[in-house]
Amino acid sequence: MPEWEAVIGLEIHVQLKTRTKMFCRCENVWGEEPNTRTCPVCLAHPGTLPVPNRRAIEWTVKLGHALGCEIAGRALFHRKNYFYPDLPKGYQISQYDEPLCRGGRLGDVRIHRVHLEEDAAKLVHTGTSGRIHGADTSIVDFNRGGTPLVEVVTEPDVRSAEQAGEWLRLLRATLRQLGVSDVNMEEGSLRCDANVSIRPVGTRELGTKTELKNMNSFRFLEKGIRAEIARQEGLLRAGEEVEQETLHFDPRTESISTLRSKEEAHDYRYFPEPDLVPIAITDEMLTRARAALPELPAARAARFERDLGLTADSAKLLAWRAELGDYFEAALSTNGVEPQPLANWVNELVARIEVEDPAESKVQPGALATLVGLVSEKKVTQNAAKQVLDRLVAEGGDPAAIVESEGLGAIGGGDELEPLVQAALDANPEIAERLRGGDMKPIGVIVGHVMRETRGRADGGEVTRLVRQKLGL
Ligand SMILES: [Zn+2]
After folding, report:
1. In the chain, at which end, N or C, are there fewer CB atoms within 10 A of the end residue's CB?
2. Cα(76) to centroid of ligand 1, in Å?
3. Is 86 exposed, middle or buried, given 0-12, 13-18 or 19+ CB atoms closer than 10 A?
4. What's the 429 CA to ligand 1 centre distance in angstroms?
5. β-bridge mates for residue 105, sequence order
6. Cα(464)–Cα(444) distance, rounded to whole angstroms?
7. In Å, what is the CA distance from 323 to each residue of 262, 318, 338, 346, 358?
8. What separation in angstroms does the CA of 186 have from each of 151, 163, 191, 218?
């Protein structure tokens, strides 16, 4: 039996947070009363005409730049024809063979294309509570209908569920930094489909792929892909075939079910939207989009690694959440503190606060930098510094003053520590005997005793050294 390798491509839908919808002037907002943000255009009344949202086109070009795509000089909108209750026109205005952006790369995954389209309305399945004539019902909220939607399609460069999750996080951080979307998976402003196939390791030919639809959290995306890889392996090992179909992953039961057999492009009878002229992207638009690009998460992480010597994990943690990177850089600029310990302490801080952005906590960036400085000068031990940080999170203030008032300063040289080590040995005579006999295992008991007595203010390494010295080891 061969070893299998997964081949995964991702299709990501991103709702743009423009002020108005894609082809009409309705407000583009989330969470309003159903069917209050509609007009004859997005409700597809006869005789209405679409007008493209300039901002949505500019933002798609900006995203294309960020992903290193080739931006088309001319792009077309097409009609994608299908019937569904969430689509009043009977077609979606999308892009087909002349998308705005092609090619590109983000991290280790190549981009196939990026195009712009309008979103469908939202179907709410009311189940038994909304029964009519004894049947379950669904209701339609047209507020979402016609909002601008960007679709990013990758090449099949992803090889595992974990890589898919990691890459989607990078894309989300990039979109957030560009300021073009709320990128909230739970609310549906970022949605991900995965095309999954498997093949024997070492072969080049692609297996039959299935499409997992609309996974609305990172955890479900990874779980769903893992489950689908396992399902396909099971089929192929049993000598059966994988059917090309569209699948739904139910995160509650972790089961996979068929939504429909996969449709082909020709099923949609794409044709150019006759109500819209081609989009012409001018050099001026390209220049403006390029100039508006901020430093993106991947570049920022690379800079943190290269210029500040952070570990890859620390760099990613700070750069992929812009607010953490900003806080870190603000703290770094206040004094000459070492970057890596500071990054570790930003992590400690994040674990202690309720708010997403540490700048909204009571701990000023300068205060955290001061605390890190006290630790590296050995004026405060790691343990005591964590107590100081707890106080800072609760009340704010100056770490040096807290160290002073709480008596948390490190107990310095041998003079202060020596009697405490002696007392710990006296209090544990059997252990002292075992240590003298060369069994070093219980040394932690003595060190722990001193740590308790000093409330973590002693340096563990120094205490260990003194214990050995006292016992003549
Ligand atoms: Zn409208």
Report:
1. N
2. 21
3. middle
4. 83
5. 110
6. 8
7. 41, 8, 20, 11, 7
8. 18, 20, 9, 10
Instruction: Supply angle C-alpha 214, 218, 223, rounded to 5.
Output: 80
* C-alpha 257 to ligand 1 mean position (Å): 35
Element (H, E) at 183: none
Between CA 403 and CA 389 the distance in angstroms is: 10
Measure 150 CA to ligand 1 centroid, in angstroms: 18
Residue pair 371/379 in contact by the 8 Å Cβ criterion: no
Task: Tell me the DSSP string of 115-142.
Answer: EEEE---EEEEEEEEEEETTEEEEEEET
Task: Grade residue 73 by pLDDT with cuts at 50, 70 and 90.
Answer: very high
Rg over CA atoms, the chain: 30
pLDDT digits (tens, 9 = 90+) for 141-188: 999 999 999 999 999 999 999 999 999 999 999 999 999 999 998 888
Decide if pLDDT at 397 tops 90. Answer: yes
- Residue 242 half-sphere exposure toward CB, CA atoms < 13 A: 25
Tokens 């609310």 sit on residue: 187
The amino acid that residue 426 corresponds to is D
Go through the chain and tell me how many residues it has.
473
pLDDT digits (tens, 9 = 90+) for 25-45: 999 998 899 999 999 999 999
CA of 119 to the centre of ligand 1 (A): 12
Question: How far is the centre of ligand 1, averaged over its atoms, from the C-alpha of 20 (Å)?
Answer: 8
